[in-house]
Amino acid sequence: MQYVPFGQLGFEISRLGFGMMRLPQIVNGEEKTTDEARAIAMLRSAIDRGVNYVDTAYPYCAGQSEPIVGRALRDGYRERVKLATKLPVWKVESPQDLDRFLDEQLRRLDVPYVDFYLLHALDKERWEKMQSFHVTEFLDRAVKDGRIRYPSFSFHDDYAVFRDILLSYDWCMAQIQFNYLDIRNQAGLSGIRLARKRKVPLVVMEPLRGGALASPTPDIQALIDRYPEKRSAVEWAFRYVGDFGEVATILSGMSTEEQVEDNLRIFDDVRVGALSDADKRLIARLRQTYVKRMPIGCTRCAYCQPCPKGVQIPRIFSSYNEASMFGDMSRFTGRYQSIVQDQADASQCVRCGLCEDQCPQHLPIRTWLETAHKAGSSEK
Ligand SMILES: NC(=O)c1ccc[n+]([C@@H]2O[C@H](COP(=O)([O-])OP(=O)(O)OC[C@H]3O[C@@H](n4cnc5c(N)ncnc54)[C@H](OP(=O)(O)O)[C@@H]3O)[C@@H](O)[C@H]2O)c1
What we know:
Layout: E1 3-5, E2 12-14, E3 16-19, E4 25-28, E5 31-34, H1 36-48, E6 53-55, H2 65-72, E7 82-87, H3 95-109, E8 114-122, H4 124-132, H5 135-144, E9 148-155, H6 159-166, E10 173-177, H7 188-198, E11 202-205, H8 218-226, H9 233-242, E12 247-252, H10 257-266, H11 277-292, H12 313-325, H13 330-341, H14 354-358, H15 365-377
Parallel strand pairs: 3-6, 3-12, 6-7, 7-8, 8-9, 9-10, 10-11, 11-12
Antiparallel strand pairs: 1-2, 4-5
Bound molecules: NADP nicotinamide-adenine-dinucleotide phosphate.
NADP nicotinamide-adenine-dinucleotide phosphate binds at residues 19-22, 55, 120-121, 154, 156, 175, 205-211, 214, 234, 251-255, 259, 262-263.
């Protein structure tokens, strides 16, 4: 296992962190429960092999993750790791809820304190709501009374929002979605540069894009197979993220013992700055090959917004592109149905064309909306 200093917090952290969101499940007809015995054995064996960062959150595994982590960390394991959990900000309805959730989470985890306490999945709206509840005063107070050590946040929005949040408080860490496809998405490379400038260490989630990069399409696999250095698609994805010195630990949501084993092997040698120029060119080609498969040239600049009828054009197009990129349009159908529920789908379009007047890419938006609607409305 490789270790790096966790920014300036004064300790070293394993480059592989265990994400406790995708634990093995026992399926019984319609019912799913987390396989606690397997989850505990997997986490403990990873800790025995050097992992010292554990990431959980209030909603993971339908609320089962925190109590399972608590039980896994008995018998001396708690002292061997840094423990992170997250405030479910979308459930917070009053300033009093901030303390209520933290206290409940400490009980669920069966610990007197957590190391990292993150505001979970912040975006613009959630951050505004948290600010209205004076969340930073709550964080300062929870540090002072010993319930948390390092106030942090996890993030899912655009760079401008990331910048706003990062500069608003003395954060100990930021957790971002980052992988070789997301260099200009969410916080992206600009977010990494800003974090370096502000000396805020990063934790990376979704290094495999939630698992998608582990199942390469045949053309991607062919590029990987032709490269002289023999590494799997998973290994290239981890090595890409691990090359960044700003990234302290890389979370993997491992759901089988084989994945734990594979990732422990890979992280024996994931070092900062270790990729050669040729390695970087390979990864750039993998990215280009994925990106080329995105048929709609939408950059999500949102100049087309607001649509007078509320059609969420960038959201529809990015889901469509994403599904095309991985060659699996069934991924789009589910996401489109949630856009339909929000009444922001393409069927609301009255073809006024205002969006096309504004689009800097000159996209035939109305035609693409029809195509997306057909694809999103078809049976899986
Ligand atoms: N704060 C937030 O908003 C937020 C959001 C997302 C995640 N997270 C945290 O970040 C952690 C990491 O994110 P993630 O779970 O999305 O990470 P990820 O590494 O992008 O995806 C995990 C998935 O990748 C696949 N995988 C992992 N190792 C593999 C291997 N060696 N070979 C083949 N497939 C492999 C598995 O997919 P299969 O299960 O399909 O096999 C696994 O479920 C989460 O577990 C969670 O703790 C936080």
